[in-house]
Write a structure and sequence with these properties.
With about 210 residues, this protein is an alpha/beta fold. The protein contains 5 helices and 6 strands; from the N terminus they run αααββαβββαβ. It is globular.
Amino acid sequence: LGMGDPCELIAYSDKRFDPRDYDMQNPLHDSFRRQARQYISAVSVIPEERRLGLIMGNHDDKVCTRYHFPVHDEICEQLSKRPNFSLGYSAIVKLRFTRRHKDVRACQLFKLCLHHGHGGGRRAGSKINKVEDLAFSYPFCHVYAMGHCHDRFIRPAVATDCTTENDELVERPRILAMTGTYKRSVTTHNSSWGEQKQFPPTSIGCITL
């Protein structure tokens, strides 16, 4: 699952734009397409049946609405022929796992509540609060995950419920997560936006559920 903004896609009007990161002899759209091709090439090593979907990010949306380049749609078309591969800005994804043992067949359903994310905050608390708000709005899922803020963490949680048969109390395990980033906030030989704003170093990578 992709959580949005697979490419940086920083445009001229963005305060983070750095001409040293771009080939200024060619149109900006060429750079956007090159970034998209690099992402598609990286993901293409995953078998298509394991590519579950791609969330749209705020960079994807801005490039589409302001620069008329639907990069999110183009990436989705290249990665999968399924019409629902594009998950929009948020989605509930249902995964069914079927196990068979001799003549017994068991099916288990997991629901993932996904949102690209929004806002920021330097401390982890503000980001955990955003995921908790997501769980409050959609209380019947198993996993709640957000991207956008570049943090990477998994926080176990539980919800208390009662059984329909005998009113016994049961705990429903849930997972709250920020899904990580592959963008470094501090790099060598380049005074990046993250370095100027004194953002903490990012933990590179994604979460595994």
